[in-house]
Records
---
Amino acid sequence: MRKIILFSSFYLMSFLGQAQISITMADMPSANDTIRYSIVQSSTGMNYKATGANMTWDFTKLKSNSQGLYEYKNSSATPYIFNFGTGAIGVKIADSLGSGQISFKQLYNFYKKSSTKWEAVGLGFQLGAIPLPQAGKHTNTDEIYQFPLNFQDRDSATFALKIPITVVILNVGNYYQNGNRINTVDGWGKISTPYQSNIECIRVKSVITETDSLAIAITGQTPINFAFPNNRIEYKWLSKTEKIPVLEVSGTEIGGTFTLTTVRYRDNFVS
């Protein structure tokens, strides 16, 4: 009988040691968090689609080309305090994107977290044609994660954003984002990158169907009207320790062929 009890205890401990983690709001960034990541420009030979239960993902051969820093700020410490007050967390995603009249500068995403979700609630930017802060809240928030997040969870949610473009107090147009996000927690196990080895994680696959559009009409200037699809697939390996994905991969998929656009992994400062 004692041998059976010992064997059962050992089996249970082994099972618990391999059990998947659960992600909650406590594992998301907070205001004043500063988190470094590395950017990979080319990663041939890496299989980002492989997934399942009790996986061992080895991405230790990734080569960093540059680094970036996520600086999460209370919205009151950003240029868009009048739009978001003090209730959101802002992080700059780019100093500048594009060129000319339709360039975007000082781009910030704004988030909120609760016991049930981590959601994008708005966007702020300065437009090349109108060098004034423009910002707006989602009319339907983008629920990036719904908590608790466990293996084999699946959820779907729509999102919508409208930003009035103004000069002083005159509205001259609008910027829109509309889409749908489908999340599937399709794997769990341990991941290794150049940052650290054997980090316990779950893997989230997000399929995002999105359309972005901009319409501006200013007297004496050529009207700006465009819309483009921003469809993508994101793979994120989430842990209980790193606040941001240990590894984040984004790209497009046509006919089962996945084409990379972005690879980022959590990292330390590299001189």
Note: The chain is about 10% helix and 55% strand.
---
Amino acid sequence: MRVVMNRQQLQQALKIASAVVPSRTVKPILQFAKVVPADNVLIATNTEQTVEVALMADGKHREPFLVPVERLLKIVSEHSCESIEIEHRGENLDITLGRSEFHLQTASVDDFPLTTTSDAQPAAVVHAGKLQEYLGYCVKAVDRQSTRYALGGVFFNMAAGALHLVATDSRRLVLCKPDCMSQADGPLGVIPLEALQVVLSSSYEHHVEISADGNTATFTMGDYLTLSTQLVSGRFPDYNKVVPASPNHLIVKPDELIPALRQVQIMTSEESRGVDLGQSEAVLQLAAKSSDVGTAKAEVAVASSVGELISIRVDAKYMLEACQPFKGLESLAINYSDGDHAITFSSAEQPDVLVVLMPLSKE
């Protein structure tokens, strides 16, 4: 029995599935995805995350079958024809793309893990583009090494009908508040990086429904994609207590600060990552020094300032990432107290993004 699918659509579905399918596993069956022609869907899972991606399948073959995700993705990526034909015979797949033919081994569909979808009502509805933009900022602050598992993902929290996306590795914190249609209140949980990569790789352009049910969260993108994921265990810290009330602040143009930071960052190293921030009247001074590299200085005009002059050392890489959400805006506010307490980055033009950064010791 043969099924015909659009090659580009299958390629996109396999790319999404590859974000879930493990490259190495003691369960080889997880390296396959299940194609269900009767439901026009492709399903992939690693038992912790499951994706269901829409397909358009034509043909008399209505029984589900398995396809090797990575191998088939390589095959369809090397062709430009419009359609792909797949004939399933037992544990063999005969694949035709234009004038090319491939014969692949598959596995029994009966060995594929059972998957279910949640019936929980959406707790939040967010535009896909804005969700992806803000998750892009948050994932940089996720702790990839800590044994505190709750820091190994992005915390989704509903606060008085507003969705808060929070990530921290104890050295910096990113808080984003995308526009959200919801009246829910309370935490949805910490979403692991593997699941967030699926959301980030999606080409969906409409609204995403987010729901939580026990230890599972579900992202629904219309009829195109459904992602179910187990939540990261552990208690996420109270991020509201991390945001300091800083008495001093200065205003600069982010598009002047970012290139200046990049310039002085050239003279940093793994052993000396710090950039010193100083101030002389209406000028923000940036300086970096490394014994095995050299020194660098740059200056940025300060539009306005309040309180004591800044004198703080920061990690150059982290500060660059802290400035990125404000790129293209007219103003960036840097709030600070002294060299021992957290600095915040915000903008009146982008009020739904806040970045908190811990300074480096000058000793």
Note: The two ends are 72 Å apart (CA to CA).
---
Amino acid sequence: MTQELTKESVSARTIAIIGGGVVGAATALSLSTKGYQVTLFEPDEIGAGTSSGNAGGIVTGAVLPTATPGVLRAMPSYIFDPNGAAVLRLSYVLKILPWLIRFIASARPKRVASIAAALHPLVSRAMQAHVALADISNARHLIKPVGWLKVFASDAGFADTALERELMTRHGVNFSVLSAKEIEQLEPKLDKGAYKHGLFQPESGFVDHPKALTQAYFEGAVRHGARHVQAKVLQVMPQQDGSIAISTTQSKHQFDSVVIAAGAWSKQFVTQVGDRVCLDTERGYHVSFSSGQEPLLNRPVCFPERSCVLSPMHDGISMVSGDELAGLAAPADFRRIRGVMPFARKALPGLVNDKVQREWMGYRPSTPDSLPVIGRSPRCSNVFYAFGHGHLGLTLSAITAQLISSIVSGEEVPFDMTPYRVDRF
């Protein structure tokens, strides 16, 4: 069947956004408030994908990249230890090899330092960017200024944070090193006496219902004229007249510009435009425990020694654990996160009688250098990229939206965008 091509407008203000996660929704809000006619393409419900299953942190001090010298030393366990911090499926090794080679290169000390310097201007503005968008979309109540807490049961585990602490200090991150007593004051229902050391970032925020925040951002965009086309995008096609054609499973549309914010699925559209990107997915697993009679936690608590986070979400305690390198097509394997559940019940004794109400897996869109791809395509001036946020999708969504809307409208951005270019690969 021949698809009819629909021209959305004759003005230079029509813009498509591919992807209805938190980055896409935030970008829709930021652009629509500047008068752009926004059409967001997402085949599912807004915010129902990977954005709905994170730990809820807006981590303003997250300057440590994933690839570090310490991670490199632990890489053999990723293949041979099914309960390790990350798992690489042997069947996926050849496909992810180019990504892994760049990941290893990113772990050099000088490169780690430069990546941290590039992360800092993003994460340090993350909270204020969310507050700005939340005020526009009447969603301020969804963002709680309760900080981000990491706890350690052993001296060795805390000692492993030396590089992180050094980088946070270098970039002026507000953080405190906590004693066992101070940890107990913040989170009295953790296993008493189990955690000797803590790291606390008081300026970080928490969203206990990320899907609701994502939907609030888009609903705010709708009030400024945005619309949602519930269809899967198949192709992005720059046209000779300078416009962009979008082909979906249902129809074709034509726009002045497009923002690709499709998370782990962005690579195919980058290739269609003529650019190249090194992007893969760190699959993350999620278990939700039913809510009990009283609150068990006041904020997300990260347990780096066990590679998991417990968060007090709107409907119970959520546990997010681990990374799995296996691509987009492999079936989910919940055995590893189920193996962490006894630890969660020990760390937070109030969970003992709470049942598991949901298991879930999401796809973190990850670059080997832990930096997102934000900015204009070098091949096509009216294609813009906003993806590759890895573990920081919620954290960086609002600042990414503000940056994209500034770039699209020709406004000055507050810092150098070179580290986030798509052609850095």
Note: DSSP finds twelve helices and 22 strands in the chain.
---
Amino acid sequence: DIKTLFQRPYMRGIAFMVFALALVSTVMNLQVYAQIDDAMAHKNYQAIYQDWDPQGNYFEAVRDLRGKSKTEAHQVFERLSAEANTGTPALTPENLEKRYATYQSELEGETRKLFSNVYFWQGILGIILLGVVARFLFQYVGLSWSTILLPGFFVIVLIALFFPLETLLLQGILIGAGALNYSLNNATKELLYTPTTAQARYQHKPLIEGPIMRLGDVSASVFKIAMTSGLVGAAVLSQQLQSRILLGMALLASVIWILLIWYTGRQYDKNQKSEQKSRELDLA
């Protein structure tokens, strides 16, 4: 099945579309979530510890307490209390622990609120795209252009993520990517299957939507794990360099996605315009 799938350019385009979507969206989410987490953690730290640490010198030490035991956290707060309590106010380790509990609680609440807003506006934009925009695009523009909207969006976003972005813009990226994927891109993908033979749909669609999609998820995760474990010890890669390598890999996948799916979309449009529509596009 895999051999025949990659021998058919039309179906190969759909397969890479699904693979690249899983890979690129995983990389994008990793980078966006990391920037959102960092920005919100800074914001809440400043609100809770501003009077004690106005310069934010101990932000990283406090942030690294996530996942550590109470005993380990207390030891850290004892060290910070001894180092930082040369000015006003002088906070004991117990005072720092109480503030840390408030910091964690408020950070979790703000994060949930942010993602709740993201999911809400994803739904609204998805309805608009599917109910209004998709009909216009499919009827008057064609699938060749419709298929490259999401990878084109990813190319722009991945380039932007090489730089620090504001939280509001990061929310906009999540909203746009989610709405384009779950509404417009899914509808486009299902349309691409319609001119293929029944054999191709039964033989290749389960392979594409199952193992190939999961392979995209796993590829991004395994690549990140490989960098953070093996390569870091050997090459001492910084966190920033790791992010740039991941973004570069996703950017390359997005460009290949555009090239392959453009061919598939063009074949679909040609077939729709022909007087006698073929159901053999998977063999093209």
Note: The chain is about 80% helix and 0% strand.
